[in-house]
Specification:
It is elongated, with a radius of gyration of 21 Å. Helix 1 packs across helix 3 and helix 2 crosses helix 3. By secondary structure, it is mainly α. The chain has one domain. Helices cover about 70% and strands about 0% of the residues.
Length: about 80
């Protein structure tokens, strides 16, 4: 049985595994309690990050837009 890493679990969460890898991973988390626990913690972390949508403050956006307007035509 393949040893899955944190990178593998992230690839699974973002649907970046091949069909064969996905099947192997699903089989592994059914049989390996430690892997399943690690995966569940990672999944919960991802879900928390997905649910916390951060938006910049309006003053920050305005400052960026003002800066961009003052520097039109300047190339770096």
């Amino acid at each position: 049985m393949k040893q899955f890493t944190t990178d593998d679990m992230i690839r699974f969460l973002y649907n970046e595994m091949t069909t064969e890898e996905t099947q192997q991973f699903l089989q592994s988390i059914q049989q390996d309690w430690t892997l399943r626990e690690a995966f569940e913690r990672l999944k919960q972390s991802k879900d928390c990050l997905d649910s916390s949508v951060a938006s910049p403050r309006k003053s920050t956006v305005n400052a960026i837009l003002q800066y961009a307007g003052l520097n039109e035509g300047v190339t770096h």
